[in-house]
Design a protein that fits this description.
264 residues, globular, 8 strands, single chain, eight-stranded antiparallel beta barrel, 10 helices, Alpha-Beta Plaits, alpha+beta, 39% helix, disordered N terminus
Length: 264
Amino acid sequence: MERRQFLAASLATSVAAIATGSDAQAPASSAREYYLLRKYSMQSGPQTKLTESFIGDAFIPALSRLSMGPVGAFRVDIGPETPAFYVLIPGSSVESLAQVNLHLAKDAEFLKAAEPFWNAPATAPAFLRAENSLLVAFAGWPKTTPPAASATKGKRIFQLRTYESPSNNAHVRKVEMFHSGEFEIFKNAGFHPVFFGDTLVGPRMPNLTYMLSFKDSAEMDAQWDAFRNDPAWKKLSADPRFSYEAIVSNITNLVLSPLAASQI
């Protein structure tokens, strides 16, 4: 009972911010995904090669057998902590994502492929720590939308942005802000959003995380300039509901590149 009440209370944060504005460019389906966002922190050297091999040769194939995907796998190029890899796992339910490791432990094919990583000794660990966050997709952006370059393994980079809020009320208003026209502003500026997620379980809550895709850093800079100078953004950000006090207290901005095995 307590677990159901906890999940219901967490989900209420996103439900309170149901779309009130444009859902432009959002996927057509209204069924909201859940996301497991996993970060592997490592030391430079053998750990990075071992972990990348694990993700590409064992982890992503096993997740595909569990009907999860498309799975994103990324290297942090610009951020406060490197080396680090992020894995984005979409799922249809909280339970399926929460039990990923339990399913993997029963998958003989996975265990064989993952053996060097899965059974790494304490004297030569495969990674330092793995951190997990559980998110629910925004109502106005319910599905992951990989860029076209993902299918051809074309050149692409990503931004992973996390907005922390000083209170639950401020967090709900920031989610509402996206649904009150911010999606449309992203579209007008030429962005390709990949996902928007409201954190249900994870560090530094309350917060939300979203991902954007670009061809290169020049396109990223140009699109953010277009976003900041859009009259619609200036009007929205001046709306008293969103501007009378800070609704975002900290922003974490990472620039990522896809690993070879990434499906996004």
